[in-house]
Design brief:
This protein is mainly alpha-helical. The chain has helices at residues 2-13, 22-26, 38-62, 67-82, 93-114, 119-124, 126-142, 144-149, 155-159, 161-184, 200-210, 229-261.
Amino acid sequence: GTTNLLNDLTDYRRGIDSNNYFRTQYGVHPLVQGFWDKRTQIRWFLVSAVLGIASAVYALFYTSFDPIVIALIAYGALMLFFYTYPLKYFALGELTIFVIWGPVIIAGLYYVLVRQWSWEVVIAGIPFGLSTASINVGKHIDKSGEDRKKHVTTLPVLLGQAASRYLNIAVIALAYLVTLYLIFVPRFFTPIMLIVLIAAPKAWKAIALLAKPRPEKAPAGYPIWPRWFSTVSFMHNRTFGNLFVLGIILGTLLRIIPATSG
């Protein structure tokens, strides 16, 4: 939420979110659409930031100011302020989304709770991060034409639509491959994590759509244009992400219950 508030404020100030830009077509933009002014946007950003800072302070005291926790908090703060500008303008926004929503959040939270760094936990964060980043890549493909005109060099603008589509196919597929690796090779996950395969039909639907170029205009009867690749990527991520978290919870219970009952 904090990132979205700052992202909208920054792009609004830079004149990006204007003239019927993609961002204002697929969702509510309070500043562009006049729901509130910049002062209100800043106020809500500060409220969200205070909650984040409070959580960070608690983590620092909880871990006795552990250097790794300090580094993770510093990294998160830097990415918060640098994502919108300049990272998003230099084809690094998508990578930032993947790292933050995957390895950093999952491995970082694990470290705060148990005070032990685990590279297997880092790898375990990769599928969730990839699935989340696929939404970002899909959205940036959808708006690559508008971004190119406004000199916002997202990854799809840099790579082109075709390469970006194949990249997003690989991102979605890799989320499953890493999950299967963790189940069958180091056996870090229990087989219950195969529950993520329930999301496979939505993954296939996203991949099938990504295999073809984006239409120049909305097909007849298509209700949510200009969203195209972003929609199927989101629908897949919502199912995959929920199943991924559920699988971790169930797998943890399967390991805890025998230990406690014995």
